[in-house]
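Why should sequence recovery work at all? Because a backbone constrains its sequence more than one might expect. Tight turns favour small or flexible residues, buried strands favour hydrophobic ones, and helices have their own preferences. The token representation captures these environments compactly. In the example below, the structure is given first.
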């Protein structure tokens, strides 16, 4: 699926000036999980172009300083269904179909911990065993 069109190309000109920008990823429908946010990550212009070209999420790792394809190792890809840009053109939300879990720790969402009454606890179940996916 090629999601590239002229309106996104125009917004890309604005995003290119930023160099590295945050991305919020949200699943289109996840009735089994109360929070729709899958992850927060970073993109650079190359990751943005690759995402538009392939229809799957690509990100920029600030720690490793390289491009990465979400699910490239695990198979838990994010199929981009829609891209939402805010009114200023400096914030992006990807609406995706998540295949498998979004979190490398094995959870559906990277936001699987909750702070309540001064304590942090897990608020979702594992959807895969990371040892089997990354070390197997």
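From this structural description, the recovered sequence reads:
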């Amino acid at each position: 699926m090629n999601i590239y069109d002229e309106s996104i190309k125009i917004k890309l000109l604005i995003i290119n000036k930023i160099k590295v920008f945050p991305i919020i990823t949200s699943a289109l429908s996840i009735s089994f999980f109360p929070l729709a946010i899958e992850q927060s990550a970073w993109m650079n212009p190359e990751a943005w172009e690759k995402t538009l070209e392939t229809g799957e999420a690509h990100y920029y790792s600030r720690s490793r300083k390289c491009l990465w394809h979400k699910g490239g190792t695990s198979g838990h890809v994010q199929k981009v269904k829609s891209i939402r840009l805010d009114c200023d053109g400096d914030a992006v939300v990807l609406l995706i179909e998540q295949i498998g879990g979004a979190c490398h720790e094995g959870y559906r969402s990277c936001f699987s911990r909750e702070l309540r009454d001064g304590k942090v606890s897990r608020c979702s179940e594992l959807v895969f065993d990371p040892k089997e996916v990354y070390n197997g």
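A few observations help interpret the result. The two ends are 31 Å apart (CA to CA).
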